[in-house]
TrEMBL record:
This is Transketolase. Keywords: Oxidoreductase, Thiamine pyrophosphate. E1 component of the 2-oxoglutarate dehydrogenase (OGDH) complex which catalyzes the decarboxylation of 2-oxoglutarate, the first step in the conversion of 2-oxoglutarate to succinyl-CoA and CO(2). Its cofactor is thiamine diphosphate. The keyword DNA damage does not apply. The lineage of its organism: Bacteria, Pseudomonadati, Bacteroidota, Cytophagia, Cytophagales.
Length: 806
């Protein structure tokens, strides 16, 4: 059905009943009163910070009327009215988030883990399995970094394209109905200055996906006005080149509408969503003349940077004031009716606020009563009031304690009565143990999946090799693995630069586009951030993307979105959302400043919540892919760039065998010293081990295989019980991954007590390696470096047996 044919079926302000119009007005005012009350709660000390959606109410009401079951939102922290209007947020939940209530039932978006204004729906059931998302109104979990919602938005919309165009996915009705779902994105005008915004729009235009972006334009980014933000101070004007030439042509549809014009907003969103939904054309709606009555946030007042004329204009053009004027002019309501709605909205918000506070605070008060009772019992039994009363009284009198106050007091009391032995002290210890466990669940759980499909729950299946299996290039092992998985699971697809037609620059996807089609193996432009975002959104919608970043160095373009979005997704929703994305990349090559990547320290520090696999060869990499494609967690797999042409054997069960995460492999046994390493360094260390054997030193080599998780079975400690010496080696900068591995073994595993010599680290130089073989040799660890370091350690232990070489 064409746009013209459906135009008569669309909702307009004129077709809405009086009841519907007044419902919108009521919702708008309830949202406004929530913003006003929220700001007061922060200033009263009942919340830490506040950022609100006041001034955006009317355009969000219009957007909500175009939002259907199965649709998706990737927005930002001013969308409270929209969430209220689609029925996925209550006022009590809104205040529960403001108070950081750490309970999924009270605050389902984040369980108190994200500040207010960060919304998301619970996509998973209690077992961590996807619900029927085609029947619900869905919101991906918000993040604060400006523009950070845009890459994921591309993926949410791209999934609709795959669900529509790939017949193999048509039976997945739990996730899509013929790809009819629109992905709605929202962003502030200042955030459109971010590169992620422009990259996402370009990607959407190329892909032709149902992505509808609303820009709330209130002319400012905190205190910085539009003249410093946007060329021509008009985002839609400078994007006119994206406008398609006509129906059936590629490009965007662009609409401009005033944020206070309720009737025009209803009409615009209906038309825009229909084009987006039926034709899979991306749409930009520039919502202009938006106001922000309370300024940016509770951190300051907008009177400091807005002129009197601007403040007067904002008051006059407040969207709710304008909607009131429109309702009156259209004869839809009387002054008295609207006054009553506004008054009732204020009371409704008050009741929700009080209920949310009581729900949050009453359990803490009960816990405080329990603690004070235990403390008084301790005093009565032991006569230690002079020791602990100065701690007990402030807690008992605190009008608004938090759980940290309770735990802090108990820990300090137990410290002071550490020499006392009594039943009351044991009761207090038991309370503390239980409180720490409960708060670990509240604040520290779900960094990784806790479902049956978690990566660590995937059963290990050993690789099997037929007799006399010929050796082939390592890339062919990966190629066979990918082909087997693509045949097994139609949800799997791969995207990236040069992945499609030529089968990636190292040929692991060679021929697979011809076998499985362009929807399954797809080239992309040079846009690492949105390649990853495309995968995140698609994974949230039940698909299994492999997103390729051509070289590990280029992960820098995407590290922010990996770190802030997918790495924290399970955590910031307390198990309510997941995105089992696989990022495939390659590094550790030994020549060249920008293709020698081993920035492992950067990655380790940024992506907790994502598994990090560092296989030494392509067979191990294939085993990791088989594991990960059966799990429900995200991971990065770093293949060895100089290993694609090295010879390996293809397992008979190439698409079925699995390599467990967190389990190192002993590559060579020895009794003198343990070398812990991974990736390309394994071959260098093995070379050095042969040279060391010639002088009577027998090293044990351990390939950690994954850095996240790291040696969960403490295999390295078992080795140190035998060798009592350890060297950590890799190609990262000094203090990088070697320091991480040392911390894991010496600190986490407590292996310091097993050592007879100081642990050593061998890493690359602090700079990147220059081009050429000499640049490699003098910049990154080589076999001679390994030999000399090990020899020095052994010389220290037995100088007579191992005299100085140099």
């Amino acid at each position: 059905m064409s746009t013209a044919e459906t135009a008569d079926l669309l909702v307009t302000a004129a077709t809405l009943s009086k009841e519907e119009l007044l419902r919108d007005y009521r919702l708008g005012w309830e949202s406004r009163q929530a913003s006003l009350a929220g700001r007061k709660e922060v200033f009263m000390g009942k919340a830490k910070f506040g950022i609100f959606g006041d001034g955006k109410e009317v355009p969000q009401l219009a957007m909500a009327r175009a939002f259907r079951a199965g649709d998706w939102r990737a927005g930002y922290y001013r969308d409270q009215t929209f969430m209220l209007a689609i029925g996925e947020l209550t006022l009590q939940q809104y205040f529960a988030q403001l108070y950081a209530h750490p309970d999924v039932e009270a605050e389902p978006s984040t369980a108190g883990r994200a500040m207010n204004g960060h919304f998301g729906t619970r996509l998973l059931d209690e077992d961590g399995q996807f619900k029927n998302l085609a029947e619900s109104k869905n919101s991906s979990a918000d993040i604060s970094p400006t523009g950070g919602q845009m890459p994921r938005l591309v993926g949410l919309a791209y999934a609709s394209k795959l669900y529509r165009q790939n017949p193999e996915l048509h039976n997945m009705t739990q996730f899509s109905v013929n790809g009819n779902e629109v992905a709605f994105g929202t962003i502030g005008n200042a955030s459109t200055s971010e590169g992620m915004f422009f990259e996402a729009l370009n990607a959407a235009g190329v892909l032709q996906i149902p992505m509808l972006v609303s820009v709330w334009d209130d002319h400012y980014g905190i205190s910085v006005p539009a003249e410093y933000q946007t060329t021509k101070q008009n985002i839609s004007e400078i994007l006119r080149g994206l406008q398609r030439d006509g129906e059936g042509q590629e490009g965007f549809e662009i609409f401009v509408v005033k944020g206070w014009d309720y009737a025009a907003l209803i009409d615009t969103y209906q038309r825009a969503a229909e084009v987006c939904r039926t034709q899979h054309v991306p749409v930009l709606i520039h919502v202009t003349e938006v106001t922000q009555p309370q300024g940016h946030s509770t951190s300051g007042s907008h009177e400091r940077y807005k002129s009197k004329d601007r403040l007067s204009w904002e008051e006059e053009h407040d969207c709710l004031r304008k909607m009131r004027e429109w309702l009156l002019s259209e004869g839809q309501a009387s002054e008295e009716e609207l006054d009553q709605i506004e008054s009732e909205a204020k009371e409704t918000v008050k009741q929700a606020r009080v209920a949310a506070w009581e729900s949050f605070f009453n359990p803490i008060k009960q816990e405080r009563t329990e603690v004070v009772t235990l403390l008084n019992k301790l005093v009565a039994e032991t006569g230690t009031e002079h020791q602990i009363n100065e701690l007990v009284e402030p807690l008992a009198q605190n009008p608004a304690p938090i759980r940290a106050d309770l735990v802090r007091t108990v820990r300090r009391v137990l410290r002071r009565v550490r020499t006392v032995r009594s039943a009351a002290r044991r009761d207090l210890q038991n309370w503390l143990e239980q409180a720490l466990a409960e708060n670990a669940d509240r604040y520290n759980s779900y960094l990784y999946s806790q479902s049956e499909e978690a990566a660590l729950n995937i059963e290990e299946i050993k690789a099997e090799f037929a007799p006399n299996t010929p050796q082939v290039d390592g890339r062919e092992v990966l190629q066979a693995c990918f082909e087997a998985n693509f045949r097994r699971d139609p949800r799997i697809f791969a995207i990236g630069e040069d992945v499609g037609r030529i089968g990636d620059v190292n040929q692991a996807f060679a021929g697979l586009q011809e076998k499985f089609g362009e929807l399954r193996v797809t080239d992309t432009g040079i846009r690492e951030c949105t390649i990853v975002g495309q995968g995140i959104g698609a994974a949230m919608r039940g698909l299994r993307p492999i997103t390729e970043i051509q070289y590990l160095d280029y992960l820098l373009y995407a590290i922010q979105i990996l770190s802030d979005d997918v790495a924290s997704l399970q955590y910031r929703t307390k198990g309510g959302q997941k995105a089992p994305l696989i990022v495939r990349t390659r590094g550790h090559r030994l020549e060249g400043i920008w293709h020698s990547g081993s920035p492992i320290q950067m990655i380790l520090g940024s992506i907790r919540g994502i598994h990090l696999c560092v296989p030494r060869d392509m067979t191990q990499a294939a085993g990791f892919y088989n594991t990960l494609l059966r799990s429900d967690e995200p991971a990065i797999v770093i293949e060895c760039l100089n290993g694609y042409r090295l010879k390996e054997r293809i397992p008979q069960n190439v698409g079925e065998f699995t390599v467990p995460l967190g389990v190192p492999e002993v590559l060579r046994e020895g009794q003198d010293l343990t070398i812990v390493t991974y990736g390309s360094m394994c071959r260098i260390v093995q070379d050095a081990a042969k040279q060391l054997e010639e002088v009577g030193i027998f090293v044990e080599i351990i390939d950690v295989q994954t850095l996240l998780p790291f040696d969960i079975e403490q295999i390295i400690s078992d080795s140190l019980r035998k060798t009592n010496r350890v060297l950590f080696a890799d190609e990262d900068v000094p203090g990088g991954a070697t320091a991480y591995m040392m911390q894991q073994v010496i600190d986490e595993q407590g292996a310091y007590q097993l050592l007879d010599s100081a642990p050593r680290c061998l890493s690359a130089q602090a700079h990147r390696p220059p081009y050429g073989s000499d640049g490699d040799y003098f910049s990154k660890p080589n076999a001679e470096d390994v030999f000399d370091t090990v020899y020095e350690m052994m010389q220290e232990a037995d100088p007579k047996r191992f005299p100085a070489i140099y």
